[in-house]
Design goal:
This protein has 83 residues and is an alpha+beta fold. It is built from 2 helices and 5 strands. It has a 5-stranded antiparallel β-sheet, covered by helices on one side. A hairpin with a 2-residue loop joins strand 1 and strand 2. The radius of gyration is 13 Å and the shape is globular.
Length: 83
């Protein structure tokens, strides 16, 4: 786990730790989900309670630290179908 000072000084953007923590080289959500969002166009997200895994692979570099719209929409669609 990172200290509060390490979280502030990180390169992940101001809102990265709002609803998640960090462990084993992945972001860990407060809801028990975990995964990694990579700025070069890939992301994976695992929600064990829902038995759900979402993998998005694109060839588009992110324009900001925020999860791109396409990634958010795919994740939301998977949640809608599988939850």
């Amino acid at each position: 786990q990172l200290t509060p000072d390490q979280k502030v000084d990180g390169a992940f953007g101001d809102e990265f730790f709002t609803d998640r923590s960090w462990g084993y080289c992945v972001a860990v959500g407060h809801d028990g989900s975990w995964g990694w969002d990579g700025g070069l166009g890939s992301s994976f997200w695992i929600h064990p309670e829902l038995d759900l895994t979402v993998i998005v692979l694109t060839q588009r570099m992110w324009e900001s630290p925020d999860l791109p719209v396409a990634h958010r929409e795919i994740r939301a669609a998977a949640l809608e179908v599988f939850s």
